[in-house]
Structures are given as structure tokens and as C-alpha cells.
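Justification of resources, computational component.

The compute hours requested in this renewal are based largely on the per-chain cost of generating structure records like the one below. Each record pairs the submitted sequence with a full C-alpha cell output. That output is archived, and it is also reused by downstream analysis tasks.
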Amino acid sequence: MAVFPSGIRMGFVRPGMSLAMRRMMLSKSLHTKHHRFQREFSRSLSMQARTPMANIIQPNGEVERKEMPEKPLFRLAPSDFAFLWKECKRCFYLKCHGLLYRPRAPFPSIFNKIDLGMKEFFKGKRTESVLPDMPLGEFLCEEDDAWVESEIFDVGKDSLVYIRGKIDCLVLNDDQTYSIIDFKTSEISRYLSMYSRQLHAYGMALEFPSKKSEIVQGVVKHMGLVCYEPQGFGFSKSGVKKSPENKKGTPASASLTGICQYHEVEKNFPAFFLYLTEVVEVLEGEIPNPDPDCSHCNYLRQAEMDGYSKLS
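The structure output for this chain reads:
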């Protein structure tokens, strides 16, 4: 009875084969097994690349990572959690589904200038030197806001979500944690709950960033609003009238005065996660009815009634 090399199946070797032929068959067998292993290994890596991980936040605030199931995926903008969600669920639904976007209203340039001025002023300053009610730390402000994008979250529904938006400002706290800051030019005490959702969205994106995020992962300890409320107007220097010597003249220097305050928002990720659950329930349902006070939906409805367009 022929004795065959260990690991070689009977089909590869025939009785009476020469030693050279047996060695050639062994080499081919090992070569085939190597390539089969490489294919299976590459396929395994490919499957891992196509199977990203999702985060689940438990009611106690702990986060569990698990393999992401095959579900619809929605991108959510933190800024929409404030007014768009409150103003009209239909407009929110249509935007998140990519069906219809509200036209952007012109944004007065004065607010952009105030926002940039605040960032330029606070950049690099210690919190206690300007707003003593804030946690101790240093303002990290840039003229161009940084994009943050979260990993994918599973809220226990039939869809997944992730968050993408721009952060106004961070404060690097003395204990190496972060405070998320949003600048506002208004009196906002009655809107704190809405802005709280926006800040929590930034916080989750910062603590669980995706590879596309422009800010590295950090622990968020505080969040709040720095609000400037203009209250007065005045001249700091009078102008100079035009003259033959000064054909353009010199404009007067004027400025706004007002108060600037810090409003702390309590960090509560589990409560925000419950809010995300409510958002996903709306996105998974039928298109909501227009809000009676939504000017955008009322405009489209009136246009349909007048025969100018059809609102589907």
C-alpha cells in the first residue's frame, strides 16, 4: 500500500507516481491552498469594511458598540434641532429624506460680522478673564467653524442616524475636557431647551466622531451659550466733513453696546438619545401634516390652490 505525504488527499497522488511528480503535485496543492486562504482572508477584510459599527446609548448613559445592521440611514443637522423641528415636522421630514429643502432666507450680514467679531475677541482668552461664570479654561475659536461628524447611532428603531454640523467654539477646560460653546446675538432664555438639543448633538459628535470629523475625539464636560444682547448705540469718534483737502472726509466711528452672558446647559445624553428616538419615529412614519403656522408650507399650499404648482 502506497504511503502518501501528510496533508495530501488520495486524489492528488496516484500509485506508481515518481517522486518528482509527487513533489510537483504537493507544490501545486500548497499553492492552491495559499491562494484559497488569501481569497478568504481578503473577503473577510472586505466584509469587515462593509460592516461598520453603530453606537447604542443605554438609559444609564453607557455606550455599547455593535455591528451595524442593514437599515436606512439619515443624516441629521444639529441646527435643525432648534427651530426647524419646532416650526414644522413636515419640513423637517422632507429635508431629512432629501425630498424638499426650504429656500435659505437671506441672513443679515450684521449678524455674521458680530459672530466673527465675537470669535476674534474670545480666541485664546481665559474664561475667567471675560465670563467668570464659565468653567475654567481657554477659548478655542477659529474664523472657519470646524465640521464634526458622529459615528452612526442605533436608537432601537428601523433606521440609523448620524450627526454632521459645524461647531462655533470649544473651550479647553483645565482638566483637559471640553466645553461646547455656541455664540448667539439675542436674548435666548426662552429658547434654551431648543438650543440644548443643538448643543447635545455637537457633544455626541465630538465624543463619538467618525473618521470624517475635523475635530479629534474629546470628552464633553460642559456646554452652553455665550449670548450678546445689543442694548444701545453710540459714537466713539465724530466724523470729519469733506473738504478740498480731504475729499472723502472721515466717517464717524460708531458701536453697539449691550450685555454678554453665559448660559450653562445641563449635559444629559440619555435624554437627548430619547429625543433622537422621537425624531426617528417621525422620519419612519408617513409625511407629517404641515404646521398651520409654517409660512413655507402655507406658501406652497396657496400656490397649489392658485394653480401655479402642485404640492405632492
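The chain is about 35% helix and 25% strand. Residues 238 and 252 are 5 Å apart (CA to CA).
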